[in-house]
Amino acid sequence: MHRGKGMKFVGDSRVPAERKPNIPKDYSEYPGKTEAFWPNFLLKEWLVGSVFLIGFLCLTAAHPSPLERIADPTDTGYIPLPDWYFLFLYQLLKYTYAAGPYTVLGAIIMPGIAAGALILVPFLDRGPERRPAKRPVTVGMMLLATAAIIFLTWESVSTHDWEKAAEQGKIQAEAKIDTSSEGYKVFQEQTCVSCHGDNLQGGAAGPSLVDNGLKPEEIAKIAKEGKGSMPGGIFKGTDEELKVLSDFVSKVSSK
Fold first, then answer.
1. Which CATH architecture describes the domain 182-250?
2. Model's pTM, two decimal places?
3. Among the four given CATH numbers 1.20.120, 1.20.144, 1.10.287, 2.160.20, the one describing domain 84-168
4. Rg of the chain, C-alpha, whole Å
């Protein structure tokens, strides 16, 4: 009998005839479609990130964040303002049905519903289509959210009293006050502390008296006749006490 006669060979496609190492194709076989992650792609990412980081550092060095005076819990007239990314929520709380007895509705329920709707967006539209016109639900919700945020932020910025806020937050000069002097005792007795502060730094009802640049005669006239929101007749002391007070206030300096 000849070799192989009556024998059949069965091939299995899962077993390759030639053993080849499991090495991916070279990137040169995909011209213009892909590139190596290391170092090509990662190097580009680092370069772009470095440019933005340097630009951000230059911006912070050229325009440092503005600082305000130390928080005063007794200043009930201070108007707080949140950071820019929360201005839309700050404006929302100004409306009738989101403030007062409805604060919970405006501060918790309404933002919660909006955030929950955005979380549900991936589950509301699972289609593979990427064109906005083919995804009306998700695109419509995002456009509505974006328009609401822009509108509320704009309203908050345009209606805020920036001049008053800047005056309220201004860092006042501090001075070393001789609390044992006769002038300071008169200052306390005439209840000037309630408006101008115990260190003459000013408060909600009165301006700072540090570095006021006024002469004793001008201070005495203001104490008797008043000025601006300060009514006349507040000072009830004698002429001698008025002179002592005027001399004391005129010499208060931060230097």
1. Orthogonal Bundle (1.10)
2. 0.51
3. 1.10.287
4. 37
C-beta of residue 219 within 8 angstroms of C-beta of residue 249: yes
* Phi, psi for 157 (deg, rounded to 5): -70, -40
Q: How far is residue 144's CA from residue 119's CA, in Å, rounded to a whole number?
A: 15
DSSP state of 40: I
Query: How far is C-alpha 89 from the geometric centre of its chain's CA atoms?
Result: 12
Q: What distance in Å separates the CA atoms of residue 247 and residue 76, rounded to the nearest whole number?
A: 31
- DSSP for 126-189 reads -----SGGG-HHHHHHHHHHHHHHHHHHHHHHHHS-HHHHHHHHPPPP-----TTSHHHHHHHH
Structure tokens that stand for 52 in this block: 């933005």
Cα atoms found within 13 Å of the Cα of residue 234, Cβ hemisphere only = 22
Question: From the annotation, which residues make up the binding site for heme c?
Answer: 192, 195-196
Report which secondary-structure segment, H or E, holds 219.
helix 216-225
Distance CA 244, CA 234 (A): 16
Point out the annotated binding site. Answer: 192, 195-196
- Per-residue pLDDT of 224-241, as tens digits, reads 888 877 887 788 888 888
Give per-residue pLDDT as tens, 54-108: 999 999 999 887 777 777 676 667 777 888 889 999 999 988 888 888 889 888 9
